[in-house]
Amino acid sequence: MCGRLNMSLDPADLADELRLDVVSYDHTPRYNVPPGSFVPIVVERLDDEAQLTRRLETASWGLVPGWAKDAKIGFKAFNARSETVLEKPMFRQSIKRRRCALPIPGYYEWETTEDAKQPWMMSAAGEDPLFMAGLFEFWKQPDQSWLVSTTIMTMESTGHLHDVHHRMPVFLNRGAIDEWIDPAVPGSGIPSLLESTLAQVDPATVTRHKVGRSVGNVRNDGPELTAPVA
Asked: Does the model's pTM come out above 0.90?
C-alpha cells in the first residue's frame, strides 16, 4: 500500500531525459503528501493537431472514473491492486487506455510492531526518482471543467520491502516507462503488458530508513520529516 508521498524534487528537471514535450505541472516542494493532493503524472496524449505528445501533467491523487457521481470516490481509489485491476469497474477502462507514470522522490510506509507503527521513508537508491506505474482518468466537474485524477498501482512486496509492508508500488525502470504509457497498445495486449511490467519490478532500486512518527500527521510538512532516526 502506498498512502503518503514525499514530493520534494521537481520532476520537470527530468524533462530532457524523459523526452517531455509539454510540462504543465507546477511544482511546490512537499514532504508529506496524502491522497486528494495534486501530484505529477507522465502521459502520452494526442494534441490538437493529432500528434502524440509526452506531457508532465497535474492530477488529483485518487482515481475518479468518468461514470462517478461524486469526486469523493477518489479517496477510496488512491491505489489499484495489480491482481484485480483488469476486472474491477473502477479501473478496467483506465488500464486499457489511460496509463501513466508517476515520478516520485519517495514514499512512506508503516511497519506494524508490537508497540506501535514505525514509519519508513522509501526512496530511490540512485539519482533518479522512483517511477511508479499508474492509471489516470478524466471526470467532468459540476462547473463543466475536467478533473484529471490518478491512482498508483500496487503489488505484493518482494525483497527487503516485504520486511516493512506486504504491499508496494509497481515500480517502472526507464525501459518500462515507454511501453507502459503508450496509448497505442491494443486492448488484447494489456494482460501481457501488465505481466511484463510486474516482472521487471526490482525492489533493490529502493532504499529505506526509519523516520519520526510526526509524519503520521498530514498537517506536518518539512524536510525534517525525511530525516533518519535510530
From this structure: yes
